[in-house]
Amino acid sequence: xxxxxxxxxxxxxxxxxxxxxxxxxxxxxxxxxxxxxxxxxxxxxxxxxxxxxxxxxxxxxxxxxxxxxxxxxxxxxxxxxxxxxxxxx
Length: 89
Description:
single chain, alpha+beta, Cytochrome C3, three-stranded antiparallel sheet, about 60% helix
């Protein structure tokens, strides 16, 4: 029984760490923004939509870039556009 419990804890820990690798939290004054990369990747299917020709390099995100890139895409019907829908306190 102890081995089963240990195995379950390890599986759960692995699952949580795998999910965490897909999620990035960007700190912001008006509430942190949690970004799920895997969900966006599955929906958009094209890395270049966000990363441009630098795909798969990381994107340097700041407030202006996020509002241009993320909110711009969301405004086309792809996601939330109100501040509190992305920024969580």
